[in-house]
TrEMBL record:
It comes from Gossypium anomalum. Transmembrane segments: none annotated. This is Vps53 N-terminal domain-containing protein. It is found in: Endosome membrane; Golgi apparatus, trans-Golgi network membrane. PANTHER family: VACUOLAR PROTEIN SORTING-ASSOCIATED PROTEIN 53 HOMOLOG, VACUOLAR SORTING PROTEIN 53. Belongs to the VPS53 family. Pfam families: VPS53_C, Vps53_N. Its main location: membrane.
Length: 847
């Protein structure tokens, strides 16, 4: 307690002077407390002193106990060591006795086995000398087992002597067996009744000998059996291709007559199987020699007959012995050619894929089976192709015959084609069959089964038959060569279709395609062209299915090379040219109406009336042709045709206005009325053709093209002082030459025109030169006579296509909205055709 605490305590105990009277009693109380505390401390010290002494005593006692325990453990360990030594002494004597017993037992067993071995070898020697094969076979097994016990003693002279003796006995048995088997097949088996049983017992001996002995015996037997075959069929009389069937008859007769005799061989030896393998190898070698040594090409009929008989024989062997994996069924694959997969019913699709799944699982099982031990006879040998493959290099004559036959049939079909497509004569045989097939198979072709030419289906039927014939013979190089023949035949057919299209043409479509001369098409010609389009579309699709079927049938190393894209390109070119020809045919029909338009006295018309006669003529032409075309063409090609037609009529109508002499205000109003009527007629074409798909895009396209003619007429109607501004506003892409021609159409004099032209050229530097190319597909009429129009340096303004690249680029744009791959494909082909040196599309671009 510090000083301040002491003072506070005293002040607390004695707050007043009167309280000091209690000092004495407090002092006594404190002293009494001090004495009590001292007494407690003293007692605690004494108690602690006594506890330390006891702890020392306890520690000493524990130490003593540990020492005593250590002594006892040491004593136990000593006694254990003594016991161990005693046990070892006892066991040492027991081990000696055990070793002695083991050696004695081994010696006794070895001596006993040696005795048995010596006796067995002697007995085997006697049996071998007497040719007692059945007993010798059992004895061989016993000696082999006894010899196995003496492998560790092979260096002992006696054992070596016995092994050499046993080896010589086995050699004697082998020579006896081979000698006895040499009489098999010589006729002795019929004289000696026990010979077959004797040889059957000899087979038991062979099984007891090394496996190499059995292999040698079977090979010798097969070679001996085939010796006569080689002698017979190597002679000049039978070493011919037309005698091939007799080879197979010989081996089948041999196997049939000797079936009972060959039963002496164990089934596991597979003697007939091995004999057939050697026969096939020898036959292949001889046939290769015959084919290679022919001075002239083999007769196709003889070659195919030999190949057919060879394939039949291989099938028989594969069925009899197994080990051959049959190729996939090809009939169904070939029958799929020409069908429309995109319209199959759900059940057809389900059945198709169930069949594919089953085939896939079957192939997996075959693969698992193929992973078995191939060293076993028959486990992995494939009889298919073992002989027939030697015919492969020589089947070129067969392919040549097939190509000749196909080409002759093609020529015949084309010559017999009546092209009878007059309205109401659509019930030809080919189309009746086709429609019936569509109904039976639930397939639809070209939207409601459009009509085909008579020769299309027979052509593919002939191709299918040819494919079936060849695939039944081979699925290797020859089948691939035949596929290339199919390509050439189909290309030739595409060329025939090309040749049937009307020729000539001078309009804008002709300029874009390179066709020379004017195309004139009758109503019958238009129907023929539609049939050609439908037939080409069918060929395009079916040729792809043909390639798919061939790729499934043909060997895998050729499957990736099977491609019909070039053939499909040919038919795409036929479709493109046919549609362009249709457009140009209609364009030619418009010539008279366009000429009539220029002969109307537009400058002297007094009033605006109904639409002009040439508009009615255009309407009659379209009303006559469009319904027929719409009913015959598929929607996508009809849409392409409409786009091409719009790209021709609109620009041509625009340029035809420039060919008129003079147009008054009333004449311009009448012509504007006619323009709107023509526009309405064009807009109604999709509904006229009963095909409205893509009509919205077509309407926009027509409106855009015809709006140029309307804009031109509005410029003509504008006042002279504002004609330049109106021209720039409504026809921003117009040229100065066109503007000058507009001034002439308005009837302005040369002197008045010049000042307006000067002002126009000053205000329009960007268009002072004509454009280098006409818009896509805009067929421009020839330029007006030189007396009425100034000389034009650039042919584009006069209605010619200056750049084929621009034409092709814009022609591709005409397919807007076409989502079909085939449609886009032939547009792309058109673009790429410029760079090709040959081919059907090149014909469209010959300058």
């Amino acid at each position: 307690m510090d000083k301040m605490s002491t003072l506070e305590y005293i002040n607390q105990m004695f707050p007043t002077e009167a309280s000091l009277s209690g000092v004495e009693p407090l002092m006594q109380k404190i002293q009494s407390e001090i004495r009590r505390v001292d007494a407690g401390i003293l007692a605690a010290v004494r108690q602690q002193s006594n506890s330390g002494t006891k702890a020392k005593e306890d520690l000493a006692a524990a130490t003593h106990a540990v020492e005593e325990l250590t002594y006892k453990i040491r004593e136990i360990k000593t006694k254990a060591e003594q016991s161990e030594m005693m046990v070892q002494e006892i066991c040492r004597d027991i081990k000696k006795l055990d070793f002695a017993k083991k050696h004695i037992t081994t010696t006794i067993t070895a001596l006993h086995r040696l005795t048995m071995l010596v006796s067995a070898v002697e007995q085997l020697q006697i049996m071998a000398s007497k040719r007692q094969y059945k007993e010798a076979a059992a004895q061989l097994e016993a000696v082999n087992q006894l010899c196995s016990h003496f492998e560790a003693y092979r260096d002992i002279p006696k054992i070596t002597e016995l092994r050499e003796k046993f080896k010589s006995i086995k050699q004697i048995l082998k020579s006896h067996v081979f000698s006895d088997f040499s009489s098999l097949g010589t006729g002795k088996e019929s004289e000696e009744t026990n010979l077959l049983q004797h040889l059957s017992d000899a087979c038991l001996v062979v099984d007891a000998l090394e496996p190499s002995v059995r292999e040698e015996l079977v090979n010798n037997f097969c070679s001996r059996e085939l010796t006569s075959y080689e002698q017979i069929f190597e002679g000049a009389e039978l070493a011919k291709l037309d005698k091939t069937e007799r080879r197979y008859a010989w081996i089948k007769r041999r196997m049939r007559t000797n079936e009972e005799i060959w039963k002496i061989f164990p089934t596991s030896w597979l003697v007939p199987y091995r004999l057939c393998i050697q026969f096939c190898k020898k036959t292949r070698k001889q046939l290769e020699g015959i084919l290679d040594n022919m001075k002239e090409k083999p007769d196709v009929a003889t070659l195919l007959m030999a190949l057919q008989r060879t394939l039949e024989f291989e099938d028989e062997l594969a069925e009899k012995f197994g080990g051959g994996i049959q190729s996939r069924e090809i009939g169904n694959e070939i029958e799929e050619i020409g069908r429309q997969n995109n319209s199959q019913s759900a059940s057809d699709i389900r059945k198709k894929y169930e069949k594919k799944l089953a085939a896939h699982q079957g192939s997996e099982n075959e693969e698992k089976d193929g992973n078995k031990d191939l060293s076993a006879p028959g486990a992995g040998f494939n009889f298919h192709g073992i002989i027939s493959s030697c015919f492969e290099p020589h089947l070129i004559v067969y392919i040549e015959l097939e190509e000749k036959t196909l080409m002759e049939n093609l020529e015949k079909l084309v010559q017999e084609e009546t092209w009878d497509v007059e309205e109401g004569s659509q019930n030809n045989v080919s189309n009746c069959i086709f429609r019936l097939t569509c109904m039976l198979t639930h397939h639809v072709f070209l939207n409601n089964a459009k009509l085909l030419l008579n020769n299309v289906l027979p052509l593919f039927l002939i191709i299918k038959r040819s494919l079936k014939r060849c695939s039944a013979l081979t699925k290797s190089q020859t089948l691939y060569n035949l596929f290339k023949v199919f390509q050439r035949v189909l290309k030739a057919y595409a060329t025939k279709l090309f040749g049937r299209l009307p020729k000539g043409g001078t309009g804008i479509v002709a300029a874009a395609t390179g066709m020379d001369g004017q195309i004139k098409t009758s109503d019958r010609d238009e129907r023929v062209i539609c049939y050609i389009v439908n037939s080409a579309e069918y060929c395009h699709k079916t040729s792809g299915e043909l390639a798919e079927s061939v790729s499934k049938i043909i060997d895998s190393q050729f499957a990736d090379r099977v491609d019909m894209s070039e053939v499909q390109d040919e038919f795409s070119a036929v479709i493109t040219k046919s549609l362009v020809t249709l457009v140009h045919g209609l364009e030619t029909k418009f010539d008279a109406e366009m000429a009539a338009m220029t002969r109307v006295p537009w400058g002297t018309l007094e009033s605006v009336g109904d639409q002009s006669g040439y508009v009615n003529g255009i309407n009659m032409i379209l009303s006559s042709s469009i319904p027929v075309l719409g009913s015959l063409l598929s929607p996508i090609y009809f849409q392409f045709f409409l786009d091409k037609l719009a790209s021709s009529v609109g620009p041509r109508f625009y340029m035809n206005i420039f060919k008129c002499k003079q147009i008054s205000e009333t004449g311009a109003q009448q012509m504007l009325l006619d323009t709107q009527a023509v526009k309405t007629i064009l807009l109604e074409i999709p509904s006229l053709g009963r095909q409205t798909s893509g009509a919205a895009g077509y309407s926009k396209f027509v409106s855009r093209e015809m709006s140029k003619a309307e804009a031109l007429l509005k410029v003509i109607l504008s006042p002279v002082d504002s004609v330049a501004d109106t021209y720039r506003a409504l026809l921003p892409e117009g040229t100065p030459m066109e503007f000058q021609r507009i001034l002439e159409l308005k009837g302005l004099k040369k002197s008045d025109q010049q000042s307006i032209l000067d002002d126009f050229n000053k205000g329009s530097p960007a268009i002072s030169q004509p454009s280098s190319a006409a818009p896509v597909g805009q067929p421009m009429a020839p330029a007006p006579p030189a007396s009425t129009v100034p000389a034009i340096s650039n042919p584009a303004s006069a209605g010619f296509i200056a750049s084929r690249e621009d034409v092709l680029t814009r022609a591709a744009a005409l397919g807007r909205g076409a989502a079909t791959t085939g449609f886009k494909r032939f547009l792309a082909l058109t673009e790429a055709a410029k760079d090709r040196k040959d081919g059907p599309f090149r014909k469209l671009f010959n300058a």
